[in-house]
């Protein structure tokens, strides 16, 4: 669809507008977060409006003006789809009613200060624009026109938007891609998880029209990694964050199965494992972490897995069906895998060094309540012990021997004993890394090297709500925000991170949601019924 847009300027303004001081045609100026930015028209394509067809529009009266009080939200039906009608400070707004992340009903969320927050995973949307302002998720909400006539509230909306319930922000494209030297890029992003993808998308949303290259050791385009342990039989295309066409449309190049071996910060060059070199102007390191392996005897046996890829998860499900599974480590990954396999496997055994799952994170009482739920679902725990040996028969796993002397039958073993930051390749680079291997960044996600940013699970950053204590927060939501902040600061916006960390886990149909950063708590205050798992726990100091 080609859309031609004509801007009509009043006669007296035209002479002023026609020439810029240097005598060339004036560039397009548009505002982003209150700052004027200049882009030449040919650099900043105008996105065609998919909703310009009048036949696609629908208008309906949805309520009386007095039906909604200030601060109230209501799901309303327009005949061919629903919208979320909101009244705040005497004004009505209408946006999509489902969160674009996993489809949660936003009417059950929280409305506060011009934003609605998703009840499931905490994504946050501006009610005036529909724009996503906190994560997880990539898309914004469609915004619909509201008008008041004779005390009635009408919504005018596109049928397509009502059906899709999501809106991808307008993005720039790359200009003169064919002129580029293959071995040089303006922005290089190492890692293609949530942080890397959000960084690339934010750059394009802000009108950046130079080359962007993402590289990943993975064989797939960016995908929804939390689903690997929550929905283990998902195929890569089912959990892709964006389809292949998206990357082509917005000129975001993704190099798969490419590992960076070293970074030369003086010459601004990334050296790949296969010897290929790429120059960059700005660099984002978002390599995430690497799972720890077992160090016991027999660790090379077949059918022992760290779940890193969709193929790993799919293979575990296939091998575990009606067989004996041993999971080492009551981590989030270990517990989610145990919950997923409990109905499918013949037996699920979980081995953990601590006395209670999640003790350091959720405290003993919450940990015991979660443990009880697992035991009621046939998961057997072997606590305060470790694996001493993996025994095989004809090369394949047969038994897991514990230090306590217990021998467990096992056809498949999943290891979830934690992870370390994937930053080994930066050791000689001059980029500041702490004693645990985390990249140290400031509130703008900048490292100690100008033009080099880092984001996601591999960094420590100052957390505003804990008096700027340097913390590592390996949450999916936080990785999104890191990527956005890094992109905005590559464009010199001076944006500081101030997000509240948020994570969720789902097991046996129960969802635990956690907001904040409770590391170092010395008391847990519980309201509600812990036995029924209907409670709120406050982690205090």
TrEMBL record:
<dbReference type="GO" id="GO:0046872">
    <property type="term" value="F:metal ion binding"/>
</dbReference>
<keyword id="KW-0479">Metal-binding</keyword>
<keyword id="KW-0274">FAD</keyword>
<dbReference type="GO" id="GO:0097194">
    <property type="term" value="P:execution phase of apoptosis"/>
</dbReference>
<keyword id="KW-0411">Iron-sulfur</keyword>
<keyword id="KW-0560">Oxidoreductase</keyword>
<keyword id="KW-0285">Flavoprotein</keyword>
<comment type="similarity">
    <text>Belongs to the FAD-dependent oxidoreductase family.</text>
</comment>
<dbReference type="Pfam" id="PF00355">
    <property type="entry name" value="Rieske"/>
</dbReference>
<dbReference type="Pfam" id="PF07992">
    <property type="entry name" value="Pyr_redox_2"/>
</dbReference>
<dbReference type="InterPro" id="IPR036922">
    <property type="entry name" value="Rieske_2Fe-2S_sf"/>
</dbReference>
<dbReference type="InterPro" id="IPR017941">
    <property type="entry name" value="Rieske_2Fe-2S"/>
</dbReference>
<protein>
    <submittedName>
        <fullName>AIFM3 factor</fullName>
    </submittedName>
</protein>
<dbReference type="InterPro" id="IPR023753">
    <property type="entry name" value="FAD/NAD-binding_dom"/>
</dbReference>
<dbReference type="GO" id="GO:0005739">
    <property type="term" value="C:mitochondrion"/>
</dbReference>
<dbReference type="InterPro" id="IPR050446">
    <property type="entry name" value="FAD-oxidoreductase/Apoptosis"/>
</dbReference>
<dbReference type="GO" id="GO:0016651">
    <property type="term" value="F:oxidoreductase activity, acting on NAD(P)H"/>
</dbReference>
<feature type="domain" description="Rieske">
    <location>
        <begin position="60"/>
        <end position="155"/>
    </location>
</feature>
<dbReference type="InterPro" id="IPR016156">
    <property type="entry name" value="FAD/NAD-linked_Rdtase_dimer_sf"/>
</dbReference>
<keyword id="KW-0408">Iron</keyword>
<dbReference type="InterPro" id="IPR036188">
    <property type="entry name" value="FAD/NAD-bd_sf"/>
</dbReference>
<dbReference type="GO" id="GO:0051537">
    <property type="term" value="F:2 iron, 2 sulfur cluster binding"/>
</dbReference>
<keyword id="KW-0001">2Fe-2S</keyword>
């Amino acid at each position: 669809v080609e859309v031609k847009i004509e801007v009509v300027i009043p006669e007296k303004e035209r002479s002023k507008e026609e020439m810029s001081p240097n005598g060339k045609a004036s560039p397009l100026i548009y505002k982003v977060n209150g700052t004027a930015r200049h882009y030449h028209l040919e650099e900043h394509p105008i996105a065609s409006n998919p909703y310009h067809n009048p036949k696609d529009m629908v208008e309906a009266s949805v309520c009386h003006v007095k039906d909604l009080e200030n601060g109230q939200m209501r799901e309303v039906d327009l005949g061919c789809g629903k919208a979320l009608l909101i009244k705040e400070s005497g004004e009505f707004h209408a946006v999509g009613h489902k969160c674009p992340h996993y489809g949660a009903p936003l009417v059950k969320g929280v409305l506060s200060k011009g934003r609605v927050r998703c009840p499931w995973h905490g994504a946050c949307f501006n009610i005036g624009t529909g724009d996503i302002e906190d994560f997880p998720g990539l898309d914004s909400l469609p915004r619909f026109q509201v008008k008041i006539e004779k005390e009635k509230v009408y919504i005018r909306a596109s049928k397509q938007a009502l059906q899709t319930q999501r809106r991808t922000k307008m993005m720039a494209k790359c200009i003169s891609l064919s002129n580029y030297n293959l071995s040089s890029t303006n922005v290089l992003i190492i890692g293609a998880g949530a942080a890397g993808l959000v960084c690339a998308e934010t750059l394009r949303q802000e009108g950046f029209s130079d080359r962007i290259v993402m590289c990943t050791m993975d064989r797939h385009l960016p995908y929804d990694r939390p689903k690997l342990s929550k929905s283990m039989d998902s195929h890569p295309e089912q959990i892709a964050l964006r389809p292949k066409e998206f990357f082509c449309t917005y000129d975001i190049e993704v190099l798969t199965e490419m590992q960076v071996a070293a970074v030369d910060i003086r010459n601004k060059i990334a050296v790949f494992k296969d010897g290929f070199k790429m120059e960059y102007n700005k660099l984002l390191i978002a390599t995430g972490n690497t799972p720890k392996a077992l160090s016991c005897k027999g660790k090379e046996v077949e059918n022992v897995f760290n779940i890193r890829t969709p193929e790993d998860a799919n293979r575990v499900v296939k091998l575990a069906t009606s067989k004996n599974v041993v999971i080492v480590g009551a981590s989030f990954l270990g517990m989610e895998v145990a919950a997923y396999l409990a109905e499918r496997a013949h037996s699920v055994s979980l081995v953990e060094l601590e006395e209670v799952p999640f003790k350091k994170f959720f405290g003993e009482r919450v940990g015991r309540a979660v443990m009880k739920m697992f035991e009621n679902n046939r998961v057997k725990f072997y606590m305060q012990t470790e694996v001493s040996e993996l025994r095989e028969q004809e090369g394949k796993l047969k038994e897991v021997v514990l230090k306590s002397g217990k021998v467990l039958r096992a056809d498949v073993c999943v290891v979830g004993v934690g992870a370390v930051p994937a930053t080994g390749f930066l050791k000689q680079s001059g980029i500041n890394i702490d004693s645990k291997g985390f990249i140290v960044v400031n509130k703008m996600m900048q490292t100690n090297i100008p033009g080099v940013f880092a984001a996601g699970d591999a960094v420590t950053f100052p957390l505003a709500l804990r008096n700027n204590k340097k913390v590592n927060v390996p949450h999916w939501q936080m990785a999104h925000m890191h990527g956005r902040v890094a992109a905005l600061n590559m464009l010199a916006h001076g944006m500081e991170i101030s997000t509240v960390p948020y994570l969720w886990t789902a097991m046996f149909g129960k969802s635990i949601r956690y907001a904040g950063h409770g590391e170092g708590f010395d008391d847990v205050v519980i309201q509600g019924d812990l036995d029924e798992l209907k409670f709120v726990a406050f982690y205090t100091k």
